[in-house]
Q: What sequence folds into this?
């Protein structure tokens, strides 16, 4: 397990970019943390690290964004507005896990029971200072 403290958005993006170096096809990254804790900034860093330079936003209303053009496809999920687990089947969640890309899952706690056992868990929490974030990364 590793823990990093970031002091601004750029540092959070840099942590995501560095983290992307270890990712391989089929990896799942579960992101846990409150609103505004840095999850989407981290995803932006991962996408940059993978060589994807398109604009990354949280797919809150559409559940998943697909990003191509880097060394691996990136499937960015946001489960914040997920109404029930049946919606996972509707969007083909299981198929995404087998597409040979990297799946980043914001609000992973909402689908805790559906998460694959082999994954990275990344926890985000607010620090005491403005813009300070604690990021904990654990491989399971």
A:
């Amino acid at each position: 397990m590793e823990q990093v403290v970031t002091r601004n958005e750029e540092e959070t993006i840099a942590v995501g970019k560095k983290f992307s170096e270890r990712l391989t096809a089929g990896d799942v990254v579960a992101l846990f943390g409150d609103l505004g804790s840095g999850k989407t900034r981290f995803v932006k860093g991962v996408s940059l690290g993978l060589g994807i330079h398109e604009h990354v936003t949280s797919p809150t209303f559409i559940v998943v964004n697909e990003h191509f053009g880097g060394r691996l496809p990136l499937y960015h999920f946001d489960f914040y507005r997920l109404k029930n687990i049946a919606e996972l089947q509707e969007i083909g969640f299981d198929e995404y896990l087998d597409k040979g890309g990297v799946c980043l899952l914001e609000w992973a706690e909402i689908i805790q029971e559906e998460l694959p056992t082999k994954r990275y868990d990344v926890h985000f929490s607010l620090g005491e200072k403005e813009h300070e974030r604690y990021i904990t990364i654990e491989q399971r």
Observations:
- The radius of gyration is 14 Å.
- The beta strands are 2-6, 28-32, 64-67, 74-78, 102-106, 120-126, 133-139.
